[in-house]
Request: fold
Amino acid sequence: MSLKVIVGLGNPGPEYVRTPHNVGFEALDLLAQRWTCELRPRARFDAHFGKVEVAGEDRWLVRPDTYMNDSGRAVAGLVGYYGLPPEGVLVILDDADLEPGSLRIRPFGSSGGHRGLASVIAALGTDRFPRLRIGIGRGTTSAGLVRHVLAKISPEDDPPIREAIDRAAQAVEMMLQRGVEVAMNRFNVRRQPAPEAGDESRGGDD
Reply:
């Protein structure tokens, strides 16, 4: 099934810019920039979206203007209006269970506890669509997960997360050109931490 709709999940509003929960928005905005696609607000769908031809087919880029937990309403509204297949939707989202900088692509599956993805699954009536998760980690245990995902990205997590957003855009382009499975084999690799100075045992390939 060809991917027709690429959705980035996040929360609208300046207070949520550069927060871990909004990496899906950032990856979508990067794709829009790379493809010269303007995302325009459409009140009908409670979303910003744009249409662009990529790899020989029309694609829709969607950034819901609902809050994260109601993302499915915007996605289902657009999919239904244009008569697009739910299995042709790709969702880009954050994942606290992945270390910062890691990517994980799956062709289908449960929400894994992510409320934004759960909303999309419920609204579309199926979980048979691919998703691309960007690792954001869980931060410090004392801060709590909710505070972590809604706070600004920490200075130590910012470089690997910036890199992961760029690789996420590359992964989407590979999915459109060569399929989800090829992209999974290429991008589903855990990020390796840089070896500490003087620690040669952590260098090289295992």
